[in-house]
Design goal:
With about 230 residues, this protein is mainly alpha-helical. The chain is elongated and about 65 Å long. The chain binds adenosine-5'-diphosphate and nickel (II) ion (NI).
Length: about 230
């Protein structure tokens, strides 16, 4: 990255910080900066253009639907912000395409993403895992009145494992682990991201084991680490 590009990254960092001010922890600037760091780490191992990676990581949630009446504005805002700073059309196209296509909801075929897009998508998904992932899941539930866990009538007797599919159906934090979070690693694009995800998954599994143990619940089912 040259000096001009570094200066632009700093300006965009400041713009995004201003725009996301006041947005809930877990999905504000703290999330963006973790995604930026993880994306840099992945890029250092797999390559790709660092300038594009950093811009896309910084801008990927700048118009998050949760804060814009359910309408995802990130790609539109990204274009405006980059145009205002006089960034080249080539770079704008590359970054807007990434921001527009990496979300889990879009479920776009990863083959269609650029290498830089694959990196930022992986970094965003990784932020739903590990200790941070646990905190974000609990915070999400708290804002919606969703409990972290309930004992369902179909739960097995104490010390027997409940099934993954039973838990995944529950509208709870624990349900979310099995419905989505433990499935993310297989959707990742890059090897370094898969390694980070595996370590974080193990931590989440051990958290769940301890949680179920302390709650005198049937043991948490184990996900195969293949
Ligand atoms: P992103 O936009 O970063 O891909 P989301 O906005 O979908 O992620 O979710 C933000 C955080 O809330 C993530 O950590 C996600 O795992 C968590 N979350 C999303 N849906 C649920 C849910 N139904 N129950 C608990 N946590 C959830
Ligand atoms: Ni995100």
């Amino acid at each position: 990255m040259n000096e001009v590009e570094r200066g632009l990254v700093q300006k965009i960092h400041a713009t995004v910080t201003r725009r996301l001010a006041g947005q809930g922890a877990g999905h504000g600037m703290d999330h963006v900066l973790r995604v930026l760091n993880t994306a840099r780490q992945i890029q250092s191992e797999v390559g790709g253009e660092l300038f594009i990676v950093e811009l896309a990581a910084l801008l990927h949630d700048v118009g998050d639907a949760k804060f814009h009446d359910g309408i995802e504005m990130s790609a539109t805002y990204t274009k405006e912000i980059l145009e205002d700073l006089g960034v080249s059309h080539e770079v704008i196209d590359a970054v807007v395409t990434i921001v527009d296509n990496i979300s889990y909801r879009k479920g776009i075929d990863a083959d269609l993403l650029s290498l830089e897009g694959k990196i930022v998508q992986d970094a965003d998904r990784i932020d739903a895992l590990g200790a941070i992932g646990i905190v974000r899941t609990i915070e999400f539930g708290a804002t919606r009145g969703q409990p972290f866990h309930v004992v369902s009538p179909t739960d097995a007797a104490p010390n027997e494992k409940v099934s993954v599919s039973d838990l995944a159906l529950q509208k709870t934090g624990v349900g979310h682990f099995y419905d989505k979070l433990f499935k993310l690693r297989k959707l990742l694009n890059t090897e370094p991201a898969k390694q980070i995800a595996l370590q974080r998954e193990r931590f989440m599994q051990s958290f769940l084991d301890q949680y179920f143990l302390e709650s005198s619940q049937p043991l948490a089912p184990t996900i195969a680490n293949d």
